Fold each of these.
Amino acid sequence: MTVIFYKKIVTTMLLFAILFCIFGPILAGEDNILCTEETCKDIKCDELPPKCQIQNATHNGLILPSMMTCNCCEYCLENLNEGEECSMGDISNPDVTEICGAGLYCKNTTPGESDGICSRMETSCTKKQDDYDGKRENGTLGYMEVRQDCDSEGEFVPYKCIPGETCYCVDSTGNRIFGEADFTSIPESELKCKCSRDYEEAVVIIGRELNPGEIFKCSPNGDYYPVQCMDEKCFCVDTYDGVPTYPDAKEVNITDISKDTLKCYKNKEPGIFYEKCESEYLESYKAYKALKDEGFSIMLGFTFPNCDIDGTYKSVQENSTHKYCVDKEGSILNAVLQTDSLAKTMDCKCARARLTMSSNEKPSCDANGNYSQKQCRRGKCRCVDSDGNQVCKKAPCEVDQNKDKLTCPK
């Protein structure tokens, strides 16, 4: 019977194959005895399985480096579809030809047996999909609700979109994080959000929020900023994963960066890396540290702005009397007193979304810049959550312009 390994086992085999291909020739000596140009010349490769040759939405496979010496032949695991038979497998059997496809796992149906059925993964993300499907069936689906997208492992994709408004980044648990862009029908291309997700992981590891100059820099959409600077030395990186794009290129001093010295530099003026908020923070910190180094233990009057990981001002700022929403340059959009109950929940997401959107159909905001719980668009009113997504727990999900008829969940 065909043997199906868990994906982690396949990943381990893949890693071994790659390491063997990389280090095998080195271990063999400078003459590259194991792998030469002639090694694969007389090797007869087996034909790839049918699904691997087709590679469409319903018939496809996972192309991997071959486990044979020098990786002469292509190797592919056919992806099984939901409901097809599979097996947990035996690690001692190397004959792996099939695996449950994206979003599926081999579910054991009989205790004590290694056989199973390729079944849909049961994760928080897939449960969101099930909730959507259930609401569509029972008539409680809002017209602006969107079915959750999950990745091949059943986890949340890095973005979420509000139709006609904005798209924003989410972490692996589906919670909103830094990164927002105007609505797009191709968010998978426009919002990779890896920089934003990497930052969240760094915060968990370190145990606190990171300040300007301590961490990599992201773009407003959550991708990596193409120029990164560490200890005043700058270089170009891939905007997806932050890996240096010219690893052999010499680093450039931060004061010398320009279109001539760095291929990825886009600013019209040379020598500009830090945004206004970053510069303000670093200037205050420099003065603070200078006094501390001189032996002062109590220092008053220092204020540090709250900066986002793209170097601009965070949407919520505050002083001793007020909390206020600002744009990315720090200009005040609206403010409330610290003593006002609205200050406690202030997030300014709606105020910022209005600036991000190109559409004239802007969302309605409360006095603190948050989304108003009742939103109206094109003659229909609906309830939304704090991120602006439609929520509906019982019909009707929308009413006409008379918002008083609408009951929103608390």
Amino acid sequence: MNVLTDAIGFFGQALVEAVLVGALAGLVGVLVVLRKRTFFATALTHATFPGGIIAVLLGWNVLIGNAIFAVVLTLVMLALTTWCRQRAAVASGVVLTGGFALGTVLTGLNPSLPIRVQTFLTGSILSVALPDVQFAGILLVISILAVVLLRRQLLFSTFDPAGYEAAGFRGWRIDAVVLVLITATVVALMPAVGAILAIALLAAPALAAAQLTVSMRGMLFVAPILGAASGVIGLLISARWPVPAGPAIVLSATGILLVSWAVRRALGLVRQSGLRRLQRTPLPEGASTNH
């Protein structure tokens, strides 16, 4: 037991974790989507699977194993793209399949693991430890500060990378910041939604925010709210019906994405209908379009 669970109980701690990881996924997910890092994030979420297993075998906190493995895999992908001159998609694909295969092999060699393999794949937010919640909270604060302080550089380098370089900025520096945020976010999401589902929680709130806003600033504001809402709704669904919390959270995020798309579509149809009605309205007698 810890201070947080003593004060609000295990479900309350899980609710705090859901809000934190949902908001974090929404915020960093905007960078993932706009900077086209989705496949990188997918590779990272799947390939960190063996890191958790190794941590359990060594008696470490799963968060530590995931973090170490995520850093190693990020360096491997950077090495493949920088020195071996492989395409980013190729490097991500190699890391994704290799890491997941290693996790499967380790699972087969250790059938008596004290933690179910499904926990690594789909998460177990109701059993998160206090360090998991603390890490998610600290990382959310750091991510907010990074986005606020670097908002101009992020905006410039995201939509005009060539112009960003031509203006004298070092593109690799802002890329490094983004990669660090993505890597750390993937690690923070693992205890809550697991290796397979994390990418959906990263992408769905950001894509939903893109349907409801017209700017990167708007997406960075709306996506964390939608992500946190997904976490809360999914956890409440899991408490009400016998469904796992991780999949319920991701399905909630997917549902919010579909609703946001439908809302934008409906507003677009209403706007088009209004314009057509305006065009068909005859001008008053004696009125002229010439001024």
Amino acid sequence: MTLFIRLLPFLLIFLARSVSAETTITVTQSTTATRTLTLEYSQPVRLVQVVEDSLANISKLVSQNDIQPQPIYWSSAGLYDLSAATAVENQQQQVLHLLSNQDSNKNKPKNIQAIKALSDWITVNEFAKREAIILDFDSARLKEELNPLISGHYLFSLPTKPGYVMVLGAVEKNGKQPFRVRQNATKYLDWALPIDDSNNSFAWLIQPDGKVEHYPIAYWNNHHIDIAPGAIIYLEFQGAQENEQVLNQQVIELLKYWIR
């Protein structure tokens, strides 16, 4: 195995390719990072090796403002397949197209506001196909089935713990809400101000590890589900346009691929 280390801004990782490396892993702690770490292997590599090499070299990602690397929030850590970047970009553009078709009812300014805010958020954020791999270092070392061989071009995101929950969809205030321990989805949505044409029985919860859960939010189906820092709560559009079901499904699928 041969290991190379390169440093480059995050925005260049979708363009960077090695003609000689069998497997390339770009390591970052943030999509806004000015530096990323690139690990190049001459052959397929086990997940444990990638984690070990990433942790051994993570100090190279430290910015001038930090003395040492920030703690990793493993719940949000993800391995993203960059060879599928074109397909995910097409998926992103399809969602934006569906949202633009929703922006037609001039008699409902709050609907238009919610659609525009969601569209703007999707436009400025990064998405990639997230591998369904449990990133538990200790378990991967002990169980072969949790330590797969990796081959290709990947992004390995090792973010720090955020202090927010993201609330998106049919709400007036799309964006971050301060994380509160044991706070339920209904309260987060209340602060975000749901529009009239929204689902008032269920929301979707996308945990930072990519797990998707149907979250009951009405008084008659109240059931608590813990919401982790960095999670997304998505409230469906409902009752205004014919293609809302397709839109909601595609938005949820895209949000699973959000790079934190």
